[in-house]
Design goal:
The complex is a heterodimer of chains A (107) and B (117).
Chain A (H helix, E strand, L loop, with lengths): L3 E4 L2 E4 L5 E7 L7 E6 L6 E5 L3 E2 L7 E6 L2 E6 L9 E6 L6 E2 L3 E5 L1
Parallel strand pairs in A: 2-11
Antiparallel strand pairs in A: 1-3, 3-8, 4-5, 4-9, 5-6, 7-8, 9-10, 9-11
Chain B lengths: L2 E5 L3 E2 L5 E8 L8 E7 L5 E8 L4 E3 L7 E6 L4 E6 L8 E8 L4 E4 L3 E5 L2
Parallel strand pairs in B: 2-11
Antiparallel strand pairs in B: 1-3, 3-8, 4-5, 4-9, 5-6, 7-8, 9-10, 9-11
Classes of the chains: A mainly beta (107), B mainly beta (117).
């Protein structure tokens, strides 16, 4: 199976700063990569699909990039509501797998 | 707008079968999307259990394949999960979700299932 590694484990930033989250895969999988945001007690919310496509209703401060085995989620200027856990997921190779998550918390 | 809602028992005894249903509204389940089950253990990350297409085609996580079965009931616009021989390791919040492939844009709120005697 494709193993996803996310870094850093925790990112401590202030509102207004830029966040850069990394997701690295153990092998390629057709760039079918998604990013999700999850807040405590809530279901995950799809942010990005196909590595770089924003999901419906997602603000343009969120962007995804990358290909092959290295992918990045960038949050251009952190808003207070962006502090959460972010997961990457590949859905190009079965079984679909999730990364362990990156927590973005307030510095 | 599609809405998903999980239902089922919140407590299951070890070695018994966990059965959950996901009720879908605002979208016909046999329109062609993939309907997934994902779980999250206490304080842990997300684990993909598998997908079922509206046509009935299934794709299971090999780690659970021997114990899991999905089904679709088009007449009720719902799909279901059965997980047999549960242990404490199956304690988790179980989410149902809809995706174009495996990118899940719509999720239920999740249901906590505890395996305990």
């Amino acid at each position: 199976e494709v193993v996803l590694t996310q870094s850093p484990g925790t990112l401590s930033l202030s509102p207004g700063e830029r966040a850069t989250l990394s997701c690295r895969a153990s092998e390629t999988f057709l760039n079918y990569l998604a990013w999700y945001q999850q807040k405590p007690g809530q279901a995950p919310r799809l942010l990005i699909y196909g590595a770089s496509n924003r999901a419906t209703g997602i603000p343009d401060r969120f962007s995804g990039s990358g290909s092959g085995t290295d992918f990045t989620l960038t949050i251009r200027r952190l808003e207070p509501e962006d502090f959460a856990v972010y997961y990457c997921q590949q859905y190009g190779s079965s079984p679909f797998t999730f990364g362990p998550g990156t927590k973005v918390d307030i510095k | 707008q599609v809405h998903l809602q999980e239902s089922g028992p919140g407590l299951v005894k070890p070695s018994e079968t966990l059965s959950l249903t996901c009720n879908v509204s605002g979208y016909s389940i046999n329109r062609g999307s993939y309907w997934g089950w994902i779980r999250q253990g206490p304080g842990k990350g997300l684990e993909w259990i598998g997908n079922i297409h509206g046509s009935g085609d299934t794709n299971y996580n090999p780690y659970l394949k021997s114990r899991v079965t999905f089904s679709v009931d088009s007449s009720r616009n719902q799909f279901s999960l059965r997980l047999t021989s549960v242990t404490a390791a199956d304690t988790a919040v179980y989410f149902c979700a809809r995706g174009e492939i495996g990118d899940y844009g719509s999720w239920g709120q999740g249901i906590l299932v505890t395996v305990s005697s």
